[in-house]
Amino acid sequence: MTFGTAHGGRRGALVAGGIVGSLALAAALAGDACASRRLRSDPEALRLLQAAAEAARQVPYEGMQFLTTWGGDGAKTSLVKVAHTPGEGTHFTPEAPSRGAPPPVPRTATPPGTATIMAAGRTFHPDASAIRGALTGFTMEMLALLTRNYSVVRAADADVCGRRARVIEARRPDGTAAGRFWLDTETGLMLHRELIDDAGQAVAVTGFREVRITSPGGGEPIHLRGGRSMGESTPELPSASAALPWQDQLAADEISALRDRGWRMPQELPGRLALHDARRSTPKADDSTVHLSYSDGLAAVSVFVQRGGLDERRFAGWQRTQSNGRTVFRRDSLQRWAVWSGDGYVYTVLTDAPAGTADSVIKAFPDGGTRFWGRLGRGMRRLGSWANPFG
Amino acid sequence: MSCLGERLTALVDGELGHEERDRALAHLARCERCRTEADALRRLKGRLRGLADLPLIDGDEPLPSGDLMSRLRAMGAGTGTGPGTGPGEGAPGEGVPGVNAPGEGVVPPTGRPSPVRSPLLRHGGPRERSPLASRPRDNRPAGRAAVSRSAGRGAGLGAGGVLAHRAPRRRYLAVGAATLFLGLGTASYVAGGEREAPTVTPAFDRFAVEHALTSGDVPLTDPVNEDIPVQVSPEP
Known about the structure:
- Chain B: This is Zf-HC2 domain-containing protein.
- Chain B: Pfam families: zf-HC2.
- Chain B: Keywords: Transcription, Transcription regulation.
- Chain B: InterPro entries: Anti_sigma_zinc_sf (IPR041916), Znf_put (IPR027383).
- The complex is a heterodimer of chains A (about 400) and B (about 240).
- Chain A has about 400 residues and is of the alpha+beta class.
- Chain A folds into two domains: about 40-240, outer membrane lipoprotein receptor (LolB), chain A, CATH 2.50.20; about 250-385, Phosphorylase Kinase, domain 1 (2-Layer Sandwich).
- Chain A has helices at about 1-40, 45-60, 140-150, 250-260, 355-365, 370-385; strands spanning about 60-70, 75-85, 90-95, 115-120, 125, 150-160, 165-170, 175-185, 190-195, 200-215, 220, 240, 250, 270, 275-280, 290-295, 300-305, 310, 320-325, 325-330, 335-340, 345-350.
- The longest helix of chain A is centred in the first third of the chain and has 39 residues, at about 1-40.
- Residues about 30-40, about 95-120 and about 215-240 of chain A have low confidence and may be disordered.
- Chain B folds into two domains: about 5-180, no CATH class; about 200-235, no CATH class.
- Chain B is rod-shaped, with a radius of gyration of 36 Å.
- The model of chain B is unreliable at about 80-135, about 140-150, about 155-160 and about 225-235 (pLDDT under 50).
- The interface between A and B is large, with 75 and 44 residues.
- Strand 18 (about 310) of chain A pairs parallel with strand 1 of chain B.
């Protein structure tokens, strides 16, 4: 009896020691990996990025913003006039583009054949909105993703948009630049943001083409060094509809419930893209669209999922491709679009990330459509849901 | 042709119900012609059985499996017994006078005792034989066998009958489970097919704004909405 107890105790101690050792090893490895990345980030660079969000709320400005993307058929640019009033929000007004010359963006190589595209629709984005990112700074989630995947460091200051700017660089583990940010030296406002592919080519740039810092009351503009003057006062703007994202933000348990009902919403996608936001167009409606936002801290990938099938005849002008045995309609416009249907759902991918990222996202998205076991499992789920009186 | 017709054969096969069997036996008790014919039938069956029983008689071959034995016992119990006439309960007076004497086999015309005993009497004699030897294999049409089994069940079964029905029950369970498995699999496969979903067209313009707002870009409308012939669905 005594022997049995001692033997059992030794075995228990061994098992417990093994588990603790495994956990310690895993934690050490994970901690090292994270720590090494975070240690390589410059705290000052991170502080500047965080401060950009506050500057976007407090600094009154107006100007012209652009988004330029480079694809296989050249560059495309979209323009919009912006006017921000602290405490209220930002008006976005379509602006006739200045044709011909591309925006003054520092870029390592510019493909020929640029085209400028107008934005449409006037909208208003209130400061009270919880959504922040890119030019308006980083949310804590996005900053966490950025520091998890990249080393964020300071680079040499530069002039952009006629203003002196501090340059922050996000570097891959191999040391190559994956993104750059230009922050106004005097106000902290983010002026430019650039996304760079593995080959060192800029694939998307967004920022101010022209900017003027105005006084808080909308009176005399604040003239800063190198700033371009766009007039003495902010022009009166017509009324605009509020540009707000869908308000039904999905919690983790709601996402799990939708997954149980057959909605395919991966938590991770290739390229270290993590699901950081999920919203639904209409609360608890079967015909609603779910918007899944993925990011690695730099690139943004949106996946829209809705029930239904596609009428393929209406996709004339789209490139018809095959991926994982399913038909995918693609179009590289200002951003990259991909649409396919399967399993009773329609998936729409929208991203400004490089083409390779978009391709891997499409391939990695579970199809669950045609394989035998997938169909069997789907059928069992359906039978279960039909038989469940509480479902 | 006997007075009993088909019932005589059924009587010899032990397929008659209790009341009908009593009536048939009562008729045999007073009808010489039918008795003779019944004896002839039993002799014939005995010879046929004897051919099948040779290995058992020799004792060289192993006995059938327990499952088969229990089924064979069940046949005997189900067809030859009724209330008060279960195995070992056969009263000497139940034998057909002049045909089967208690404890004796059917006396063939040659005077040599037949190795075959009537199921009614097999427990009463001193030389009790294997039930296999006392009962022919059930090579009758399935319909008749089923009728006889159901008749036996209706009349009430002894312990042998309960044991005998466990094997078919297991078989039914296995068949039922397999049927359920295949049925569910087929139903799942059919139900898992592509659903007849309504055709939708993504609201590209709204998607572009939604993407811009959540990614922090300026809310630009992608020209994908302007130069392609895709109808944009109304905003949700």
